[in-house]
Amino acid sequence: MKISKEIKIGAVVVLGVALFVYGFNFLKGSNMFTHQKTLYAVYTNVEGLLESNNVELSGVKIGIIKHIEILPGDRQGRILVTMKVEDRIQIPSDSKARIISFDLLGSKAIRMEVGSSMTLVKTGDTLVSEVEDDLKTAVDKRIAPLQKKAEGLISSIDSVMMVVQQVLNKDARMNLIHSFESIKRSIETFEKTSLRLDTIVATQQYKLASIFTKMESIASNISNSNDKITKVINNFESISDSVAKSQLRSAIDHANSAFTDATLILDKINKGQGSLGMLVNNDSLYRKLDISSTELNTLLKDFHDHPKRYVHFSVFGKKDKPEKK
Questions:
Q1: Which distant-in-sequence residues (6+ apart) come within 8 Å of 276 by Cβ?
Q2: What would the pLDDT profile of 201-226 be if each residue is shown by its tens digit?
Q3: What does the angle CA 73 – CA 74 – CA 80 come to, to the nearest 5 degrees?
């Protein structure tokens, strides 16, 4: 059986139209050979969201946005978004349809935030809607606090710089320079002192070691003689007790009394009381004794020179003749 040319042309045209419709829907993201369910969400702002944009679940495309329109009869100007989602995808009824930024160019998509309800959505259900901040809004929210802090910091820096400029005048700068120079000299002196100390320790290392050895030996000897030292201390305590119990206390009391009496006597002598005090303090008696001593010396000398004036004797008992007058 021969097929006419007209039938062939018609078949080609129908096939071409079918391919065109399938390709158009495919480019729009709609698959004609899969079962889909229709879901809705209502938003107040869908800026950047376009028809045929993706509907995603955990980063996987599960459908497309079919239609965007103003909600009929709504005075608030809310927007109804119709989504076509693969029927085989099970979505809990408390899931949320969130508008997110799809790329850096500002393209939008809807991401399903899966809920925990055991009830699944059916075709024609309306999901809870959310709108994620776009990149600009998110950046603005992050930058706004930083901008405020930066402005406050810049203002504080300006105030600090004004104070620094007022404080660090010419005299203050010179004093600061001198202070740094003094610190530098001090550090250099400290380094020299440290070097000298290191040299002394290095040169006297053996002597120091010998001294520490001797000190350790002395400490060891003291430790070994601890019992002897304890006995000596005990003996000293015994001697102290014996001295305390002896008559040494009485002897000390008698000596103290004697010193007291001697002090009183010397005090009276110093004041000229009594014969001895007069003798010590009265110089008239000294002068009289000095005169008497001189006269006695003169008498003795005359006696020595002219003894006959004072002594008359005869060996044979003869009386001397009286001297002629």
A1: 269
A2: 777 777 777 777 878 878 887 777 77
A3: 100
